[in-house]
Amino acid sequence: MTDVDRQIARSAELLDRTSASYRSGLVRRDRTQSIGKRVTRIAIANSAILMAAVIIGLMTPIGMFGALGVMMLLIATTVALAIFPGTPAPTPEKLRSTDLKALPAQTERWLNSQRAALPAPAVSLIDQIGVRLETLAPQLTTLGEAEPAAIEVRKLIGEQLPDFINGYTRVPTNLRAVERNGSSPNAQLIEGLKLIESEIGEMTAQLAQGDLDQLATRGRFLEIKYRGDEVSGG
Amino acid sequence: MTTMTETLTATDALVLTPPAPVPVITAEKAIGLVPVDDAKRTELQAKVDGFVNDLVAQDVNSPEFGKRVDAIAAMGQKEIREAAGQSNRFLDRPVKAMDQESGVGADLAALRRTIEDLDPGKKGNLLAPQKIFGIIPFGNKMRNYFDGYKSSQSHISQILKSLQGGKDELLMDNAAIDTERANLWTAMGRLEQMIVLAKTMDTRLEDKANELDHTDPAKAKALRETALFYVRQRTQDLLTQMAVTVQGYLALDLVKKNNVELVKGVDRASTTTVSALRTAVTVAQALTNQKLVLEQITQLNTTTANIIESTGNLLKSQTATIHEQAASATIPIATLQRAFQNIYDTMDAIDTFKLKSLDSMKTTVNTLSSEIEKSKGYIARAEGASANKLSGANTFKLESV
Hints:
- Chain A is mostly helical.
- Helices cover 78% and strands 0% of the residues of chain A.
- Chain A is built from eight helices and no strands.
- Chain B has twelve helices and two strands.
């Protein structure tokens, strides 16, 4: 692959990432997931209430007011569960103890919860990191927890990334744009996020290296064995 | 008799040449093995010019100057790390190839043992009548001997199958080596670019320092003591890593050639074995009118012969000769004896080859290990330089293009 190709691929990727349709897709998927979760929870709670009412009703008749009470309870639970927020975003402390396979998804959720606190250019970088994390996630499923690569991944997306963003959010808002030693916290945030984004991409490339090599090797084996590329030539 | 055996041996000189050990590659010799094309060279030179001009424009004591010097200290660190990661892996391969106790080596040993059991030369005079207690004539020695084939056939066919599997493994190994060599070639290309960059930087900085000697001696001194010092250090690191990588690249080629020879040997061992068994079938027919049916061998024979073209051809021509000899000659046992001798010759050729190649492999591994050991010190320094990577010297990164 030449540099031009690589550059084109990068630009195409960037376009994909930043296009509105892509982002809305991400958000929509997130929302449908959480709605699904809520509906199931409501259904479970309501059926539990009805079950309890029937059992109590079998032992002692609950009467008109009892039925009314059950109905009120049903409505109250439904409303409460519908309004009450879904599972809260994980805290940085929780990220450290998360299972490696679930880590990219959890980090992404945590990042999304930080959106509001970050300036606009950083938000688009967060989106890009999100995309990188999604590519990384399936690669981690086959990776052992103790392997050096796994430890590196955990350090970067489980510790350094949250620590870095937390470090930024701790800076008072009015100081964030103030220049200091030739750079401002805002610029440092962007610079650091860019570095993290490219580093996650690098990790993906490194993890893919083995698979790429294996594919090339198998192809070469077929050539050697069935086309006699080498053995006859000695 | 001699004319008959000659026809069989005419095609049979199996020569397996062990590859010569890889010599020590000095850093000076390692340069220029992978060419950098002119367009890239110009690009790199432009990069260096821009960087040097920018560096000289900075105040010597400013953090900006320091950042750029740091960039020089970290120069090529990524390329070295990449190449080093691969060079540590090549030691696995030659060592694996030297392993005698598994795979093809073990199969060949098993085949030899089984074949020795069937060797007609070890059974005494097969034509003499068999007698109980040496007195009472009983049974037929020749018949008993050929019965031995029936009981060994499943064992032999298993060994031959396993040899084919071993051959596939060797081929797979070679395919993996090809992939690794392709990766190394890319890594060497990048190292070479960094060497070009470092050398250009050296001359440019030297020129600038000489220029500044009259106008700004303090700056000239700073340039020499920091920037130029690091450039030279990194050039040495790059050259060392390059030498190690080239050495590994050549070592992999050695393993590959070795495997190719071994594959030849395995093919020949299978062919001669199957051919001896076929001879036995024919001879049994001629001598005892015994129809020796070696089903498993025949099956194996047709499948493998179709896959290995050389085997097929050899078998075809040999079978014709064998039939002719067995039918016409009065001494078919000699033909059989010769067929066995062919197997032994092949196996001896493989053994001699293995011994010799073991030597060159050992030499190669030793030189490679000591070179890698030498380069480790440089890599450690490169790792140390990477510690300040996150500090954001991003914009001045000196990398291959």
